[in-house]
Amino acid sequence: MAKKTKQTTWAGALMQALTGRAAGGHDRIAKKPISERLGWLAKRHRGNEEKAAAAAGVTKRTLRSWLTGKSKPSAKSMEKLAKAERETMTKFVPAKDRAEMDASTKKVGTRSRDTRVEGGAYLSGTIRISNDERDRTIQFGRHLPSGFMDEVRAAFVEGGQEAAIKKMEEGLADHYFHTSDFEILSVEELSFGGINDPLGDVGDAGGRYVSDTETLKPGDILED
Predict the structure, then answer these.
(1) Tens digit of pLDDT for each residue in 90-113?
(2) Phi, psi (5° rounding) for residue 137?
(3) What's the average model confidence in pLDDT over 150-156?
(4) Residue 51: is its pLDDT beyond 90?
(5) Which residues, including other chains, have CB under 8 Å from residue 184's CB and lie 6 or more apart?
(6) Contact 158/76 with Cβ under 8 angstroms?
(7) d(C-alpha 154, C-alpha 109), whole Å
(8) pLDDT in the model for residue 200
(9) Taking a C-beta distance cutoff of 8 angstroms, is the pair 190, 15 a contact?
(10) Rg (Cα) of the chain, in Å, rounded?
(11) For the chain, does the N or the C end have fewer beta carbons within 10 angstroms?
C-alpha cells in the first residue's frame, strides 16, 4: 500500500495512510456543530442511527435527542464521540490495505544481504538525525515489532493525531534510529507493504539475521 504524494508533512503522510484523509481532517470535523458531527457519523454508518449511536457509546434515543437539540452531550460523551469519529475514519481505508499495513512491520533484524526478504514499510523524505539533515529513504518495517502499525492506529483512535505521531516516533527511536534526536522534515513517499519473509524468523541471539550462506561474526553490523 503506497501513498505517493507531492512533498508533504510527516503528519499529513501518516494521517493519510491511517485514515485516507490529510492531516487535520479530524480537527475540521470536531469544529462543526454537534448536529453536523452526528449526521456525519450516521452517514458513515450508512444512515443507521442505531449503529452510529453504538459507535458513540450511547442509545439511539440519546443520539436522536442530540440531533434534535433537545439535549447536549456531556464532556465525557463528547470524548466518546470524538473517539468514534476517529475510529470511523480508520475504516475509510479498505480492509485489504489495513491488513497490508499491519503486516508491513516485523522485527526480523537486518537482512540486506538476503534479497529474498521483500516489502515492509518505508519512507522517503528529508530527515534530520542529530545535525545531519538530508534526503533519505529508510526501510523501517523490518525493524519494528509485528503489527506495530495497528498500535499506531489504536493510538490515533484513543488520542488523535498527536498520539499517533508520538507512538510512531517512539517506535522509530527505539527500534530504527536508536535515538530520539531525529526529525522527519518532509515526506515524498510513505509506503506500507506486507513483508515477504520466506526464511521466517532466523537470527542470532541478538536478533540479527544469519542467512543460509554465511555466518555472522562477532561485531558484524548489517545495515539497510
Answers:
(1) 988 899 999 999 999 988 755 444
(2) -120, 120
(3) 97
(4) no
(5) 10, 123, 125, 126, 127
(6) no
(7) 25
(8) 63
(9) no
(10) 21
(11) C
* Phi then psi dihedrals of residue 193, to 5 deg: -130, 140
In DSSP terms, which residues pair with 127 in a beta bridge? 134, 184
The answer to whether 194 touches 103, Cβ cutoff 8 Å, is yes
**Residue 193, C-alpha cell as written in the block:** 507493504
Q: Is 27 or 175 the better-scoring residue by pLDDT? A: 175
Three-class SS state of 183: strand
Task: Supply the DSSP symbol for 104.
Answer: S
- 55-59, 201-205, 211-215: the lowest-pLDDT one: 211-215
Task: State pTM to two decimals.
Answer: 0.79
Helix (H, G, I), strand (E, B) or coil at 140: coil
The three cell numbers locating residue 6? 507531492
Closest of 8, 2, 3, 15 to residue 186, by C-alpha: 8
Q: For residue 112, what is the enclosing H or E element?
A: none
pLDDT of 78 above 90: no
- Report, in this order, helix, strand and coil percent for the chain, each rounded to 5: 45, 15, 40
Where would I find the beta strands (DSSP E) of the chain? Answer: 2-8, 122-129, 132-138, 182-191
Q: Quick one: cell of 133?
A: 539533515
**155 pLDDT tier (thresholds 50, 70, 90):** very high
- How many CB atoms within 10 Å of residue 20? 16
The percent of residues above 70 in pLDDT, for the chain, comes to 82
Burial (Cβ within 10 Å: 0-12, 13-18, ≥19) of residue 55: buried
